[in-house]
């Protein structure tokens, strides 16, 4: 939402949304406004005019939208944004569910600010439509970025063939079995590195969360500098994960580039929508 006329924009967006929405509607984003300054700001007050606050809350009530985090944390004070200019915290980011869908809400939480100056807000809702899919294993190419991987694979293959190439053992059996051995090595190595990365991320997020809570209470300059340093380390870790995702997406586009599959169907659907002639003069 913009910094001004939030009530007008929100009313217009929700009116347009109600004209075509179906099923469970989830509304979320940065409203740039604390719905209840007494609970949603560290100072207990806001510079937003009272009539704008009232009209925003009235619009949400008219559309039967409920603040998910506040519904589960009725008396808790927590914030999603820190303003260094005003040296104050505020809860500006929200997730809303329709009142008649609130029974599906399982949890709602405010995370730690990592990529931006706003904390992420997440929630869990129950859906009967979710069905788990079988996972097909694929080699994680980023494992080769580690300098220890190639020597370990070389040693594994040497020991494997020394132990299994024996008189009377068919060469086809040895060859097929070595694929399973190599695959098991990559699975275990990838699992170990994933656990180490997850543990490091959890440790950083825990430290960031503790420093955020301390800074919310005391507003110390030293804790804020340490907080920025920990966020930079977490950014580096997330960049490595983003690189893995980017490599996986490149592989998907390469494999599906000349095939009639789901990727092509989605591209054609978008193109068909753009070329649709909805009226003629």
TrEMBL record:
Organism superkingdom? Eukaryota
InterPro entries in alphabetical order: Endo/exonu/phosph_ase_sf
The name this protein carries in UniProt is Endonuclease/exonuclease/phosphatase domain-containing protein
């Amino acid at each position: 939402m913009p910094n001004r006329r939030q009530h007008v924009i929100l009313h217009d967006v929700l009116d347009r949304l109600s004209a075509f929405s179906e099923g469970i509607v989830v509304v979320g984003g940065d409203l740039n406004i604390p719905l209840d300054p007494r609970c949603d700001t560290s100072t207990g007050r806001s510079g937003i005019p009272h009539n704008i606050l009232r009209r925003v809350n009235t619009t949400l009530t008219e559309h039967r939208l409920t603040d998910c985090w506040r519904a589960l944390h009725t008396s808790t004070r927590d914030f999603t944004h820190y303003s260094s200019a005003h040296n104050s915290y505020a809860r500006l980011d929200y997730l809303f569910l329709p009142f008649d869908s609130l029974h599906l809400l399982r949890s709602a939480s405010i995370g730690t600010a990592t990529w931006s100056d706003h904390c992420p807000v997440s929630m869990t809702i129950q859906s009967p439509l979710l069905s788990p899919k079988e996972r097909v294993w694929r080699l994680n190419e980023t494992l080769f970025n580690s300098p220890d991987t190639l020597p370990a694979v070389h040693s594994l293959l040497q020991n494997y063939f020394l132990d299994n190439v024996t008189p009377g053992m068919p060469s086809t059996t040895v060859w097929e079995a070595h694929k399973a051995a190599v695959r098991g090595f990559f699975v275990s190595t990838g699992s170990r590195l994933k656990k180490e990365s997850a543990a490091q991320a959890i440790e950083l997020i825990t430290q960031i969360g503790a420093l955020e809570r301390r800074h919310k209470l005391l507003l110390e300059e030293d804790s804020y500098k340490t907080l920025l340093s920990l966020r930079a380390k977490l950014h580096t870790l997330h960049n490595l994960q983003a690189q893995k995702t980017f490599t996986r997406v490149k592989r998907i586009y390469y494999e599906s580039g000349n095939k009639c599959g789901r990727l092509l169907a989605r591209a054609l659907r978008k193109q068909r929508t753009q070329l649709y002639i909805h009226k003629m003069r």
